Amino acid sequence: MGWYPLFLNLEGKRCLVVGGGKVATRKALPIVGKGGVVTVVAPRVSETLERLGKEGKITLWRRPFAWSDLEGQDIVFAATDDPALNAAIAEEARKRNILVNVSSSGNQGDFITPACLETEDLLLALSTKGKNPTQSATLKAWLWETFSGGKEGNLRGNATCFSRALQLFPGGVNSPVRSFRAVGRYPVFIRYGKGSYVVDEDGKTYLDCIMSWGALVLGHAHPRVAKALAEQVALGTSFGMNHAFEILLAEKIREHFPSIEVLRMVNSGTEAVMSALRLARAATGRKKVLKFAGCYHGHVDALLVESGSGGLTFGIPSSLGVPEEYTHHTIVVPYNDLEATRKAFESFGRELAAVIVEPVAGNMGVVLPHPEFLLLLRQYTEQYGALLIFDEVITGFRVSLSGYQGLCGIRPDLTILGKIAGGGLPFGIYGGRRELMRLVAPEGGVYQAGTLSGNPLATRAGYTTITVLEEDPAFYDALAEKTRMITQGLREIAASFCLPLYVNAATGMLTPFFTSLPVVDTRTAFAADRTLYARFFQELLSRGILVPPSPFEAWFLSGAHTSKDCERLLEAAEGAMRAMARDL
Ligand SMILES: Cc1ncc(COP(=O)(O)O)c(C=O)c1O
């Protein structure tokens, strides 16, 4: 069977449908209202065609077909119930260079209309040169997927999407960083992703270094994950009841994170953090929480805080709508600041319910922990009877199968996971020592619940993702090598153009800061040049590389990124920095 897509722009085209029965109606319907001039010729026509005629959407010639009807036509649908007449019309149409579709034989026509799709102002049709309607339906689905992203409606182009999105969502987005405001352009809208690449609504392909903000460690639409999800979709997407994949995933998490003896599944990192804080307060009977400036733990009220000017401050709400009372119990200390941490414990140690930390910070850009920093936190929390919470929403299953705690050997009391643990679906967990988790309802009095918690899609995607990771013992070494290659490459390129660049990296994640000083906390991170980053972003984007549209985010790599991808990224970075250096 030969087939190929045809793009039929019907604008102003004269389309003749010969026949007025069911088949002719089926042929006529997809092309009505697509800008063409549709005429139907037949002695009798269906009710639908009758109605379209009355509405002025088609012209009806209620009489038998005449050869002269072909004059001036651009497209003809031979859809009478007489195969011989259809064949004769096809032959004559060909002679006159008219595109023809023959209802009774795919072989005689130039295209088939069951596989006819609308995309923007184009109609997309198929030539199968064959007879098989099932196959044409399959091809139609494929075409739909490929050319329209499988979306309903007629929405194409980043700019068009954004102008419509602006009417619907604050800033046109469903999460602020996606607005691209920090880099001064309108955002891209992604149509689909495959492996290390995404394609936007302008049809442009990018090497993706965002990877759903780290959630996709295997790349987009990994075949195993996609298959598992397709199977689960057919079995039901949510039961609001218990099912086997919750257990299978939880057992895997426990195996890799021995500090997590018992866990609870939720639908986002934010929700997991919020619940963990509630639990920590219940377990200790204390109110205060210590966090570190630049660490993000989701949009939990109590943790949406800025640090004040000093080394150790009470949190000031960083968002409108958060009453000061809500952050009153939050203490903020600079990341990696051993002295400020010591002071905080001396002042508030016995009032602290928990210390929460990203063991490798990813939300002020990547910042690595000082070698003693996490150890100190473990030591002080034990000494003062507070809980230590590792927020491994980013680092879990990214820097190693057992997160950063597996690498640093520190056992927190509670751990938060999300992103990769849910295989790229909405997901989060909090978990830890059995006697702590016993306090959660229904065993204990800490109430927490969720309609979609532990839902079968997320748990199955997470389970499959972790299984794939387990099966490849070289996965993390390879990911680390790719990270090293890019990190080193960026440093060398920047040096060759005399651009100040400091790159922090952990396995599978990195951030280039346009500054010459080491970046160890918010103060040093925010000293980086944002304008240079915005320019770098734009230059990379124009070269087909998508990196975070903000200078203070992590770039994420995945198993799908090849060394060729890394070379491509570095080539683009070289071009970008050359252009930047020229203008400096
Ligand atoms: C370390 C960390 N914790 C928590 C969260 C919140 O997770 P979610 O966006 O799933 O609510 C994030 C989100 O990026 C994160 O990076």
Written description of the protein model:
This protein is of the alpha/beta class and 584 residues long. It has 3 domains: 2-126, NAD(P)-binding Rossmann-like Domain (Rossmann fold, 3-Layer(aba) Sandwich); 163-219 and 475-583, Alpha-Beta Complex (Aspartate Aminotransferase, domain 1); 235-470, Type I PLP-dependent aspartate aminotransferase-like (Major domain) (Aspartate Aminotransferase, domain 2). 37% of the residues lie in helices and 19% in strands. The strands form 6 sheets. The protein has an 8-stranded mixed sheet, with helices on both faces. Strand 2 (14-18), helix 1 and strand 3 form a beta-alpha-beta unit. Helix 8 crosses helix 15 (456-471) and helix 18 crosses helix 19 (563-583). The radius of gyration is 30 Å and the shape is elongated. The two termini are 58 Å apart. Residues 1-5 and 149-154 have low confidence and may be disordered. It binds pyridoxal-5'-phosphate. Residues 213, 268-270, 273, 296-298, 358, 362-363, 391, 393-394, 418, 428 line the site of pyridoxal-5'-phosphate.
Q: What labels describe this entry?
A:
Rossmann fold, elongated, Aspartate Aminotransferase, domain 1, Aspartate Aminotransferase, domain 2, 8-stranded mixed beta sheet, binds pyridoxal-5'-phosphate, single chain, 19 helices, 37% helix, 5-stranded parallel beta sheet, 584 residues, alpha/beta, 3 domains, disordered N terminus
